[in-house]
Structure prediction request, 599 residues.
Amino acid sequence: MKYASQAVAKPYFIAAIALFLGQILFGLIMGLQYVVGDFLFPAIPFNVARMVHTNLLIVWLLFGFMGASYYLIPEESETELFSPKLAIITFWVFLVAGAITVLGYLMVPYASLAKWTGNDLLNTMGREFLEQPLPTKVGIVLVALSWLFNIVMTVLKGRKTAISMVLTLGMLGLAAFWLFSFYNPVNLVKDKFYWWWVVHLWVEGVWELILGAMLAFVLIKVTGVDREVIEKWLYVIITMTLVTGIIGTGHHYFYIGLPEYWLWWGSIFSALEPIPFLMMTIFAFNMVNKRRRDHPNKAAVIWALGTSVVAFLGAGLWGFLHTLAPVNYYTHGTQLTAAHGHLAFYGAYALVVLTMISYAMPILRGRAANSEKAQVMEMWSFWLMTVSMFVIALLLTGAGIVQVWLQRVSETPMGFMAVQDQLAIFYWAREAVGVVFLIGLLLYIWSFFVKDKSPVLA
Amino acid sequence: MSAIFTKSMARNVFYGGGVFFFLLFLALTFDSMRVLPTRDNSQNITANVEHGKKVWETNNCIGCHTLLGEGAYFAPELGNVYKRRGPAFIKGWIQGMPTGVPGRRQMPQFNLTEQELDDLIEFLKYTSEIDTNNWPPNIEG
Prediction:
């Protein structure tokens, strides 16, 4: 660790992994409810489990992004973090607020939660992914501002690199677009239109800047390739991200009441959205092939390459699969959407955070890399989780195709629940593979506790 | 990449491209908002519809159902449920939950008042009349 203040990243990474585990457990509950409908009912109805599952995802990724930036910004800026104390206070505020929110979901009926937390003052709740009570939403603004402030002040007093500029810009965008979560007009079409300004412009826009910056940072460290080369790639990739992704928002505007021209804008631009992901794959493999040194942390290299490949598959390929308007007419809101969502979030965001943790955590614990034994275990967990998530995506794709056929294409369309009964085999298999994913995650967590007498020294 | 295309050129293309396409997006947004009243059925938004939307939101209906294809994929699409089932069926259905059939997916009992039920149905009626470019493909949603 070059700068003492980088140490604040550690609690962020630990919290991220713990919440990731929570997310997966709730995912397994929901997966079972798909086939055993009354499982845990009425204690944890599906809608509650889903809120917890998706909200934990968002929160653990944010913890990961924050931890990553507190780690990499001092090193990029070649100076101590502006205020390590603020970073730690922010950590506890975010963790406690997150925990209270999740407990609220689990223990209080949602309508009562809304009433008690001031939803009558400003209606913002009850929209997918934006279910958080008003105080939590305000809390996220404060946490994001504190994070942004700390990072910007650090960047300003130190060296300004392309990586730190891109990361800061991504964070700025994250904070700015979050503000649309407070806008909830009665007009449902407008509500949906601006809802996507949070959801799409986050995950297919500004988050990709954060992803790119994190990946570029790790690649510089583990390959030793010249910064000029890597940063040039970074700019080219994120240029394509914004060129395709901003207007690409239109692929959500096909069938929710917006003008017909979005069918064209959305189809054409979002069809190009795989390009930056393909470039990212080529970039990562190229840099590793041209490496000037062999970093002792081989696991981190696997996670980095995995990010670039699975992000392309999940976000790029699986996104393209159903993004053209005539296809989306049949696939909109089916298990195909779920297949894409799972592989894209895992590939692009879960994996990049795990890449960063894999690279930084050993250093934060005082060594260049973990022992051989721990790294082998980490690599096993990479393959278990990655292959199972890929198989889950394949199974949900199968379910989606059958669903579309029976419910929407067939000349004698079946009702929703009758079709769901036909899909049970896919859901059972998905649940089984989900258990394998959990085993992979547990193995990952275990790898942090492996004791080996011969640690790899720098 | 060749030495002719430098990092600072790449940076300028990034900022220029990002700003250009964001401005284009804003222009399309502006036009969409202008055209919207011809499609979004907003002339039928009443105080009841407004209250119904709030009932929809504060009971987290989107946590299981889709509405115009967006939401969770655990329970049926409700954007066109008004046309598929009609108001009386919807009301009776919500009141009759949960079915308690072993092994079947269960919808909670939300204990909605008469007024809340009626307004929720008004909201679903308004939603079903939005011009969605003929989506969904058939009445099953």
About this structure: The mean pLDDT of chain B is 97. Chain B has five helices and two strands.
